[in-house]
Input
Amino acid sequence: MNIKLKSRTLPIMLLLLASVMLIVAYWATLPIVRDVEYVEGEMALPQPVTLGTVSIEETLLRRSSIRDYNDQPLSLEEVSQLLWAAQGVTRPEWGGRTAPSAGGTYPLEVYIVVSDRGVSDLESGIYNYIPARHTLLLVESGDKSSELAVAALDQEWVADARINIVIAAVFERTTERYGDRGNRYVYMEAGHADQNIYLQAAALDLGTVVMGAFHDDQVQKLLGLPDEQKPLYIASVGHPL
Ligand SMILES: Cc1cc2nc3c(=O)[nH]c(=O)nc-3n(C[C@H](O)[C@H](O)[C@H](O)COP(=O)(O)O)c2cc1C
Output
């Protein structure tokens, strides 16, 4: 009886030990999931919806650049959805996002420039999107869209838009691993992220246009970007006229 009990206990103990070791090993590889503390000034965005009503084919067909917007503010849900589409975390186990990234180096930093009455329940200002926690970090208050339009060679849709999404990049995150070739990878990633914004906007009946024509130094200064971040794209967004 005693021997029988022992012969059953040992495999159970081994199984338990193996499970504990597996759980510990798993958590050790999950820096993103563990790092969920909120920084002061961060505000949580509504959870993104992951089941839509429009097919990917219809969304691709609908996608086009739209530059004329009405005055209707975006909802916080729409902003949440657009940012999630750009760089949202879809694989919390290791930090994978909606857009691919060379070697998972994730060089992109996404900002929104919110105009007055641009988004219901969100003050005008410049915000940095934090993918790991799906939050917004306020960089500076106030409507900066007219100044952004000037920096973007007076493209008037920048001033008319409810929000402008700015995609910046820290090239070193990728070039540290890939050398010079990393530079091209960063530009490719900005394209992936913005195409996601286009498709999400189309699925939500929003209008967007992406822009590469702007004065880098002026956008850098206006957004208060640190030296290592370089602006690559501006995407205006609003409800189509
Ligand atoms: C790299 C790049 C830079 C662009 N820059 C601008 C720009 O500065 N201003 C603008 O109004 N549109 C810009 N566009 C949008 C194009 O004008 C637009 O995609 C093109 O006319 C095709 O129209 P569609 O997007 O409706 O298919 C840019 C597009 C890309 C891919």
